[in-house]
């Protein structure tokens, strides 16, 4: 597939998506959101890909937000549609993938950029990263899930302050808040993220997919998370991965999971 705004590499079971509009600090225009949807969909379908990493091109930005130049003249209806389409195509889509998605936050992650990082299953930041939801400084609110996912990750009070002040926090503060799991020097960001991906890849892809579903259920009002866990726990017993994992343990050897 040919993409204009993103780069894709696949190696050793890891699919890496790099948002590639560095002259616009990798701002998310609608075309990029559509390309990202297609890229995630393709990588999810590829059984050889066990982990997806998303990052931004260059040393300055992960993503500096939704592309402001595209929506500056939108009407009420167009604004609502922009948010709805983006959430469906990218942000909710990423959150609900069964393949683990790690955001390697390599610089500014603002507005839609932080929202994209928060839709990923977890985040690792470079030491120069800066994060925030500055939308109210533009007279708008976060529209790609930021008002929901930020309080889930950092708590209501911190989310209120970050959104109301339109402020930015540095990587270490983000770690203290629980917004990112690790902070590493920028030059080590991708290798460090790949090392975590390798640990994930030792485990059953099917079980990981079910675990993502069960954990996500905790944050959906209409779904009972405990029931989701019970259902998916049960499903594991019908998988080849479960037979392989338990047999390998009893035979004192390393499991070789097929993801089935
Ligand atoms: N949408 C569209 N273009 C953006 C953008 C965005 N969210 N963020 C940065 N850009 C563009 C700038 O317009 C500029 O383009 P130009 O060279 O054609 O003028 C280019 O990226 C470089 O950005 P610049 O502002 O010159 O870099 P800086 O180092 O001075 O400042 C930021 C960096 C991140 C502080 C600043 O770009 C910024 O505040 N961006 C907007 C952040 C935001 O409000 N995001 C939420 C959007 S809902």
Automatic annotation (TrEMBL):
Superkingdom is Bacteria
| Similarity remark | Belongs to the enoyl-CoA hydratase/isomerase family.
Task: Please name the Pfam families in this protein's record.
Answer: ECH_1
Q: What is this protein called?
A: Enoyl-CoA hydratase-related protein
User: Which keywords does the record carry?
Assistant: Lyase
């Amino acid at each position: 597939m040919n993409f204009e705004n993103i780069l894709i590499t696949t190696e050793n079971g890891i699919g890496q998506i790099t948002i590639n509009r560095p002259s616009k600090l990798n701002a998310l225009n609608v075309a990029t959101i559509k390309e990202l949807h297609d890229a995630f969909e393709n990588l999810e379908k590829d059984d050889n890909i066990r982990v997806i990493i998303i990052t931004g091109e260059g040393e300055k930005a992960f993503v500096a937000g939704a592309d402001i130049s595209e929506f500056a003249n939108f009407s009420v209806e167009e604004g609502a549609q922009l948010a709805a389409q983006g959430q469906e195509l990218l942000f909710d889509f990423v959150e609900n993938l069964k393949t683990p998605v790690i955001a390697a936050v390599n610089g500014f992650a603002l507005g839609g950029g932080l929202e994209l990082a928060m839709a990923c299953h977890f985040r690792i930041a470079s030491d120069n990263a800066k994060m925030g939801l500055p939308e109210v400084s533009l007279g708008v609110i976060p529209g790609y899930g930021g008002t929901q996912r930020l309080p889930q990750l950092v708590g209501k009070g911190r989310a209120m302050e970050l959104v109301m002040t339109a402020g930015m926090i540095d990587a270490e503060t983000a770690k203290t808040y629980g917004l990112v799991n690790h902070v590493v020097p920028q030059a080590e960001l991708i290798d460090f993220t790949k090392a975590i991906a390798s640990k994930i890849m030792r485990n059953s892809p099917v079980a990981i997919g079910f675990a993502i579903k069960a954990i996500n259920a905790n944050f959906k009002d209409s779904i009972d998370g405990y029931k989701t866990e019970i259902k998916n726990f049960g499903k594991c017993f019908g998988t080849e991965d479960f037979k392989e994992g338990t047999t390998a343990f009893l035979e004192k050897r390393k499991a070789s999971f097929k993801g089935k």
